Amino acid sequence: MNENSTGRGFELYGDLFDFLPNSTYSTNSTDNREADLALVKLLLLFFPAFTIFGNVLVVLSVYRERQLRTATNYFIVSLAIADIVVAMCVMPLAVYVEVNNNKWQLGDILCDAWVATDVMGCTASILNLTAISVDRFIAVTQPIKYARHKSSGRVKGMLILVWIVSIAISLPIACGMNYTNARKETPENCIFYNSDFLIYSSMGSFYIPCIIMIILYWRIFRVIRLRAQKQRRNHRTPKIIENKPETHSLKRFDGTDATTDGAVPHTDGTLSAPSEETDDRKKSGGYSAPAIIEVVESNVEPIREESNGKSVTKFNFHLRNSKKRKKDKTANKREKKATKTLAIVLGVFLFCWVPFFTINIMNAICIRYNLFHSHPACNIDEMLFSFFVWLGYINSFLNPIIYTIFNVEFRRAFKRLLFGCGES
């Protein structure tokens, strides 16, 4: 959100070397400065080009891969579109300003359109991340409700709201809010002159959404941690019931044979193990293979009974559905992984944007201070401001890289798009 374009920062970068005495650089300062500026231009152009490339891959991956068409990934697509807008419409003109020594020569209308698009694109990125955190929060804390109400209509409604709010926050610029007396005095600068708008946009675009995201992710991690602790507490060493050689077979109370083949259904009941040994088994040389059944409850005690003259051992048992448990474990693992990936996206986002919005508020305070003093004494270091502006832009460049590193499905989709290979 380039609210104070500072191409002078790169001019100062070149001037720094002019003060180095008795150096090779000082003898060829002009030529070397031009070479340095050319390198800076090339590096700055690298970011919008690769930002567009990476985010287009994200959009195409979700469009082409059925398994990526999830509610969360639709928000990621919206985030990628916002990053593409910043890379296509904002970054190139920001490069122009930087290398043109902070001189804007494209007119006031285009200046306002550029700044408004900058605010809208960056705000949309932040609000999409907020929507993703809301989606993750419901998915983790209320999985049943999330599964029932996970519809494309709800997702579309949230995405429409994100873009409406983003446009609304940037709209005052298009309505002339940035026309002040200070702007009339410096028409060659395309910057923000209205301190009220700086505070208003910073709160709506960053601080309020940021607080919401931090609270939601903190609660998500807390739920996951408590759930993991509960699972560890409930994990007990299972009892093993063995079908001793003295018995024919291990049977349920209803007479159906117990089996350990495949998945054991979730049920409660009683197992009966007749302890009478027949001569037929002895004569035939046969034997009963030990039947092993996992009993989840550790407080089950065997009860000896006499039934029709036979010694019977009965067990009350509770068998765990292994197939369902494996499915639940896989689902929980997927949820944890998705939440971890998005938390990394949030962490990188905060690293990239917190410095800018901090110095942006300081800039608003300086504008207000200088407005009421005849000799302005409050100024923000231009090189530092410029660095923080581009650090924020780089966030749009980093998001597709994060998806590639931490999300196997996106990584495979990228490989298929680029090389026509990858696991299905």
At the fourth CATH level, what is the homologous superfamily of the largest domain? Rhodopsin 7-helix transmembrane proteins
Helix content: 55-70%
- Percent range for β-strand residues: 5-15%
> What gyration radius follows from the Cα positions, in whole Å?
33 Å
**Head-to-tail CA distance between termini:** 39 Å
CATH class of the largest domain: Mainly Alpha
Descriptive overview:
The protein has 424 residues and is α+β, with helices and mostly antiparallel strands. It folds into 2 domains: 8-233 and 340-419, Up-down Bundle (Rhopdopsin 7-helix transmembrane proteins); 239-324, no CATH class. The protein contains 13 helices and 6 strands. Strands 2-3-6-5 form a 4-stranded antiparallel β-sheet, with no helix packed on it. A two-stranded antiparallel sheet has the order 1-4. A hairpin with a 2-residue loop joins strand 5 and strand 6 (310-319). Helix 1 packs across helix 12. The longest helix has 50 residues, at 322-371.
